[in-house]
Amino acid sequence: MNDLLGRPLRNLRLSVTDRCNLRCEYCMPEDDYVWLPREDVLHFEETSALVDIFLALGVDKIRLTGGEPLLRRDLSALVRMIASKPGLKDLALTTNGVLLADQIDALKAAGLGRITVSLDTLHRDRFVKLTRFDQLDAVYAGIAAAQRALGRMKIDTVVIRGVNDDELVPLLEYGRSVNGEVRFIEYMDVGGASQWSPSRVVSRLEILDALAKHYGKITPIDEPGSAAPAGRFAIGDGTTFGIIASTTEPFCRTCDRSRLTADGMWYLCLYATRGVDLRGPLRRGADADELKAIIAAGWRRRDDRGAEDRLALGDRRAFVPVQDLLRKDPHLEMHTRGG
Ligand code: SAM
């Protein structure tokens, strides 16, 4: 099933909670937030029922995210419900790693295939400043546990000028030491990222330049037909890394991702200000065919190109005004819709 720009519905990011145990300055910088009402948060059975519909319509990749997904009690029970569903090729999880050491074995046993850990700095003082919590050691423990359990992982790093742009090489080296492929992410102006400014964005080209200065020749890895957000590269010894250039070189044209929030709102673009309510119909007793029709209709009229639109705006204004809009609707926050 394709949208108006010919993009297939394939990749679903399932946010299982809007709560987080860190307060990263580029994602959740505010002191207080409007949380999703607890009674609105989907039960696992409800999420699983919606996943069935998405799979029937062509989704074959699911990533669990949040908020911090490991804060959702008994997440492995949801993993178990989803992992064995026919048609699902890839089940992954994105986490800040703080609670990972305790949970990785249960998650793996439940069928989790892949994991991405977010890590922006190797300096304890910077970590504390960036996230407001002294949890770097817990993240390292989580990464070590993931390496033991799954063998390898991805490590996602948001690069911010003046914050961690001097750590590209150390992060790559650290990634190599734990069998983690590092993906450098350009700082995006989405939702709660109120600290965003164009001058803080380190572009893909700058990242490549900095790494080439240290490693010499960097070779792009050709992946024809890939809808993956990261362009991948290799340094001389074969170590690979990725760059997600969502800000300076958006990949809207191939974007097959959509997002379901913990309370069952379905967003067809990370930047969309409106979603499709799936919880309402589900709780009113809509059957599979009705839900399928709602989702299919939503995808068929999708023409979003949020990152391209944001790029076209330049640095004229914040994409989502925090006071006017964000304060009133938690769905617009990155931590609600899952990054
Ligand atoms: N708590 C989990 C974690 O930390 O990975 C999952 C949710 S988090 C919103 C998902 C990803 O979005 C993280 O890798 C985070 O770094 C990224 N992210 C959040 N705000 C961002 C921003 N303004 N620009 C780029 N990436 C961002």
Give the SSE layout:
Layout: E1 11-15, H1 44-56, E2 61-65, H2 75-83, E3 90-95, H3 100-110, E4 114-118, H4 124-131, H5 136-150, E5 153-159, H6 168-177, E6 180-186, H7 204-215, E7 219-221, E8 231-234, E9 240-244, E10 257-260, E11 265-267, E12 276-277, H8 279-283, H9 288-300, H10 306-313, H11 322-326, H12 334-337
Parallel strand pairs: 1-2, 1-10, 2-3, 3-4, 4-5, 5-6, 6-9
Antiparallel strand pairs: 7-8, 8-9, 10-11, 11-12
The structure holds S-adenosylmethionine.
Largest pleated sheet: 12 strands, mixed
Order of helices and strands: EHEHEHEHHEHEHEEEEEEHHHHH
For the secondary structure, the number of strands is 12
Percent of residues in helices comes to 25-40%
| Annotation field: number of helices | 12
Determine the mean pLDDT.
93
**Measured on Cα atoms, how large is the radius of gyration?**
19 Å
Strand content: 15-25%
Low-pLDDT regions: none
Name the structural class.
Answer: alpha/beta
Task: Indicate the overall shape.
Answer: globular
Bound molecules: S-adenosylmethionine
Compute the separation of the termini in Å. 24 Å
Largest beta sheet: strand ordering: 7-8-9-6-5-4-3-2-1-10-11-12
